[in-house]
Amino acid sequence: MLSYFVCVLHATIPLHFSMINNPQVLNIVVGIHDLNTGAGQVVYVSELNMHPEYSFIFNADIALLKLQQPLKFTNTVQPICLPWDHRTFSAASTCFVAGFGISDMKGKYQKQT
Q: Which CATH architecture has domain 1-104?
């Protein structure tokens, strides 16, 4: 069973700054590929830890969520393995990403200077 969840911090926008002191209003849904089906596990968050150098999607866009209860592993909910510290990858390495989102940032956001 898993009690922590890693996600992009901007996924909690526009509420993430207000949730730092009240993360219990945030929940995660896992184990589904269509948010309209109503299936899957819904688990509430007890703690939101944002990266101290977070700057929207341009820098350190990561959060560690401590869950109020552990996720139950099923055929649709499985942990992912993270590389060990200081691991480097070549440009030819195959990498995988899990989750919902857009796959092309072109024209979506502009960095503020």
A: Beta Barrel (2.40)
